[in-house]
Design a protein that fits this description.
heterodimer; A: 114 residues; mainly beta; four-stranded antiparallel beta sheet; B: 111 residues; six-stranded mixed beta sheet; five-stranded antiparallel beta sheet; 11 strands; 0% helix
């Protein structure tokens, strides 16, 4: 069964550094998402991406964050100047038909900011 | 503010019993509803989707939707210890909006 793959599985960085989290969505999916989950809290929406542009973003997704689809397969989340409170599990997801259709999640990247 | 509410639990049931998980949502116009299972430290895994009022069954799982009451539930029959996980309710509030997740209900199935 096709799956969403994320790398790395765990990233440790120092406060103020930039990190790039990578995702390869399911190949025939058109809608891509980043969610995050702080330990013990709920899964929170960050951003959705369709047709090479951001379709929706949450209040969390401020100027510190950016997304990119640099080629036909990868989908990246960049966090500039990381803060301690950015420590969380970051999940990439994709869906075939956008809102209203199921999301398929990758295994996540655990980001630890020290 | 679009909200999805779940009792955080833990909900403890004996092996072989029926586990009943509940979820309410804030927007009467919501379109699509999903149940995900999340094991500790892992990603959410889709169990079921439901789009219209009534029941939908898939193996040991039954999702129930009541749009008038803004209520969606998940029943797990013949619960197994391997069902012990956090169950997340997710709602799409309108056509193309991203899923909003509840905090999840932690289920513990006791052998």
């Amino acid at each position: 069964e096709p799956e969403v793959t994320q790398t790395p599985s765990h990233q440790v960085t120092q406060m103020g550094q930039e990190v790039i989290l990578r995702c390869v969505p399911i190949s025939n999916h058109l809608y891509f998402y980043w969610y995050r989950q702080i330990l013990g809290q709920k899964v929170e929406f960050l951003v959705s991406f369709y047709n090479n542009e951001i379709s929706e973003k949450s209040e969390i997704f401020d100027d510190q964050f950016s997304v990119e689809r640099p080629d036909g397969s990868n989908f990246t989340l960049k966090i500039r100047s990381t803060k301690l409170e950015d420590s969380a599990m970051y999940f990439c997801a994709s869906s075939a038909e956008g809102g209203g259709s199921p999301l398929h999640f990758g295994n996540g990247t655990r980001l630890t900011v020290t | 503010q679009k909200e999805v509410e779940q009792n955080s639990g833990p909900l403890s049931v004996p092996e072989g019993a029926i586990a009943s998980l509940n979820c309410t949502y804030s927007d009467r116009g919501s379109q699509s509803f999903f149940w995900y299972r999340q094991y500790s430290g892992k990603s959410p895994e889709l169990i079921m989707s439901i789009y219209s009022n009534g029941d939908k069954e898939d193996g040991r799982f039954t999702a129930q939707l009541n749009k008038a009451s803004q209520y969606v539930s998940l029943l797990i029959r013949d619960s197994q210890p391997s069902d012990s996980a956090t169950y997340l309710c997710a709602v799409s509030f309108s056509g193309n909006t991203p899923l909003v997740f509840g905090k999840g209900t932690r289920l513990s199935v006791i052998a």
